[in-house]
Specification:
TIM Barrel; globular; alpha/beta; 12 helices; 8-stranded parallel barrel
Length: about 300
Amino acid sequence: MALLRFRKAERQVPGPAPLAAFRDGWSIEVMPRTAAKVADFRALLPAGTRVYVAHIEGTEAADMVATAARLRAEGFAPMPHIPARLIENRAALAGLVARYRGEAGVDQALVLAGGASRPAGAFESSLQLLETGLFDGFARIHVAGHPEGNRDIDPDGGEAGVMAALRWKQAFAERSDAAMAIATQFAFDAAPVIAWAGRLQAAGIALPIHVGIAGPAKLQTLLKFAIACGVGPSLDVLQRRARDVTRLVMPFEPTGVLDGLARHLARHPDSNIAAAHLFPLGGIEAAATYAAGHGGGSPARNEAE
């Protein structure tokens, strides 16, 4: 990921080689309704950047496909979300995948359960989507990860369910031709992410991790998203900031969490933390500007990490 500006002390830490892969693999995401407000993504992002197209409840498939096609035409690598709980049946999934491939040249996707409380039809998990075989031939498939837990899967606050699902996805990756990785929910502290990545490795889950990073935004905006998305331990970072009245009016920037991840990678080059994914919670222009100002000139790469 190219979003890191290392301090002098960090440059003295051995192991620059693994950091290069992290700095050069960043990605970002948009929703169709926000993409429509951007005149030309080429003015914001480096050519070839991987751009996730977020599919939230109520978004029409036609708008998703059109956004992906536009990103492809402007020189980017679109990676649409495919949310299980918004898809009625296998025929609907097959039609959507065919449209993405045929109309937008899509060969990569983030396959996830989705945030809908009730499934629209036959699917409720990403595992079910992957089992259809309809993603055969995709060059890259990402799946969701939750370093701070997911109470939809583990209501007790543990991680037995999510770990079982990730072990299944690891096994799927081993028999798939697609390059696979885990894209995580955003976090505001490196420590929970690092600890979670270590638990995955101990469990034999070797999928590369693309860490979700909240782009610059007002503190109130980040608190709202964090509570809505179930961000747990790292929420303390925002709460401590909120208690400091001198910092309330200043936008939050993710430099602290990025620095923490970079230091960890320098000391642990065998870590499965591979890249960073920007959630533009304060707007895509603010996120892209932050990336550019912190060395973000290298787009996400499409080969296996």
